[in-house]
Model the fold of this input.
Amino acid sequence: MDIPSTGRFVWYDLMTSDVTKAAQFYQDLFGWKLVEQDMGECGKYQMIHQGDVAIGGMMALDPSEGIPPHWIAYATVEDVDKACERAVALGGAVKCPAMDIPEVGRFAMISDSHGACISPFSFSGEAPSESQGMPAPGMFCWTELMASDPEEAKRFYGEIFGWGFGEMDMGTLGVYSVLKRGEVGCGGIMQLPPDAPHPSHWMNYVAAENVDEVAAKAQELGGQIFVPPSDIPGVGRFSVLADPTGAIFALFRSE
Done:
């Protein structure tokens, strides 16, 4: 199967108000291991490993900027600078200009017109091979945009990341748009509920062997459950939570 190289989610960063508290929470919850790296002027960076695989990182937020803790996903593009230009042309903004990560790649941070942020990324060399099938527990497995305007979001992100879209009827929840790289689903877009406590945002799912048990443990560790463990008929089981610093994430197990 021919899968486009663009639009692939490859990394996840937690920007948090308390790295120590967040690190302990996720280590206890998922068994992640963190390795500190000195990023020079950017400060200390905690590289997240699940087993032998690096999957993301954690960095401290600057309190003076007033930005709440959040996770941000990185998705591949052919040219990061052109992705930034296109984002602005489509009504979005560049939150962090394109810059190089020596011997790794190039990235930036952009937002759509409703403020949801994502990082376009390109590898400086050959991209790591893609795993097949459902990721193991503790690995990120899905990335989803809760959008104020799903149709506008599809136009914006489709042009930047090259995603196609499939549709799923979710009954009372409305139509769910599946992000597609060729014929492979890699994420989704759905309507942000009118009573949602947050504006448009990307939410990242972590695979769980037992969603109910992991959600309960997260609460015991100081997290908050926004959506209790629930079934998605014909798909799987999920829950939406926040860590003790307020960053939102979700759990998922497929049927």
About this structure: The chain has a mean pLDDT of 92.
